Amino acid sequence: MSSHDELKESLAEVIQGAKLKAKSRGTSIKPAVETLGSACYENGVLPHELTELIDLVTTSAGNYLDQASLNSIIRNLYPATKVASEIVIKVVACLGHGVLKPSLTIQAALLRWIIMINHVIEGNALSQSYPVLFNLLDTAALRPSLCQLLAMITRRRHVRPHRIQTLLSLSRQTGSDPALTGLLRVFKDYYPEIIVGEATRGKASAFKHPDPAWRERLDEIQSAHAQTSRNANAVQDAFHVARNGNGARKATALIPEVHTSHANESSVTLEEIENAEGLVKALETIEMPNQLISVLADPLLQKLLLLRPDAESLQRASNWLVSCAQDLVSGDGDSEMEGILEIMRGYARATRNLPPVFLSLLSEVLKTWNGRGQASMLEVLSYVPLPSSDFSGLYEAVFQRLEAKVLDGTPSSQLAVLHCYTSLLRNWAAFLLAQPQGRDSTSSAIPDLVTHVNKLALTVLQTAAAASSFPASNHDNNSSSSNTVATHSAVLDFYEEASRIASNPQLQRHAQIVILPPPLVYLLHFSASPATVSRLCGVLARYKAGFQTAMAGSRNSSTYSVAYINGFNGFLMDVCNCLWRARAFNAQDANAHGCLLPPPSSRT
């Protein structure tokens, strides 16, 4: 039985058992509840089952489940996908006093659940329910969770004079309840000139995430389901201000959230933007937030600054990073290194850009880097801008230090650096394609990079070949063969990017063609994998097309020597001799290399 079938069977058993009183069931319902909870924890709950479970826990009429069972179900409600607005409306509708309402304990548990899934809720159901939630603040049992939820969803349009007055009155009646004081401080962020006095000076709730471990498990379930179903809803909504205070990752917790103070009724703040249309309409009138360093972690602010560039904001962000770099280099902020790298990776991934100050910072950090956060470091460096001169200066300042820290002689470390260079070459090609057609400058950085990677690629293939030559068992033999094919694929990934640059007429104006090292061509050609041979032929075909285009132009005809072209033509001749002409290792044909076999071995 599959896990989903198990969940459906136990859910049906629990729903049926909930209709009967305990004495009428015959058997205990607890085993079914435990099985249901385990199934939900392992794989999450799909929308249909989630609807049934919410109907079960929010309905008191005819529901004879005990409080412990209901609480257990709520604790294990891990939605595998985005949560529909209808689910949230049902939860909000069950709150408050009434004979048909669930107990206040269950209501508090449901509010806690809403807080923990707030980041995966579709639509604006919570914002639309703001008046209902606010009017429940006089219920003491629900007040702590309600204040935290309201603090998370409050926007400037929600802060009204009558609500401020209500909060102040409740705060006085409850003796400055910390939860109410915390919510008042959120209100004050929007209208500091209105909320004054002693109201916000007392002890306030920190509004921490109720259960970080629960949030981590939810993220794992959502990621696994998104990867399986290729669900685009797993992507973060980039048209809402990111609220990271509740269960944020360590990286984003280092960056302040977007808050805009000193706003007036006629101004527009980022907190009010909810979709792409709203951003476009208010683009020219949006007020900048208090701390522009938030651009490093907030997708919406990143979009605003890309569409409405502001040199001051980038400089302020740069100053913050420089300060962090000084702490890291001195050893004071070593524990935050991974967080800083993750922040920079998110910024570079969103903007497809790595400002010069970031590059200078990384150059300094690499001097004392301990290797933690390696994946983030490699991805950040793949966005290094294309230098206007050669590659040597960039290599000495950054990549040489990177290789010294990462390369340890193992295939995994070599492949990690190779993947970084592949992404770097791809990003440089994208940058050049985005340039105006009239630009005709030439940079030696791309040929220099390919020349440098030629040596690394040969080392990677030789290391893989050595590992596959000495298997300890049949199982190791199969594993090593698989690893060799994966290594060949990683090497071909790089040369496919290089061959696309070589065969693209627009890119040829910016970079000369650098051919593959002869040993690398034949190591790949004699691979046991047909896919590897096929991809190699594709790479060589694109290089051939690139040379034909380059030689056809009068300006480029003298760029490549006859010996250089003949050296490449020898690869084509040898491949043809091996695959189609039944003359493998023949060195007598024009330009043929005989697959680099020495003369005595090539004679028949």
From TrEMBL:
Q: Which Pfam families match?
A: CENP-I (PF07778)
Which residue windows are coiled coil?
A: none
Keyword list, A-Z: Centromere, Chromosome, Nucleus
Localisation: Chromosome, Centromere; Nucleus
State the superkingdom.
Eukaryota
Where do the TM regions start and end?
none
What the record says about family reads:
Belongs to the CENP-I/CTF3 family.
Classification via PANTHER family: CENTROMERE PROTEIN I (PTHR48208)
**Listed name of the protein:** Mis6 domain-containing protein
The species this protein belongs to is Apiospora phragmitis
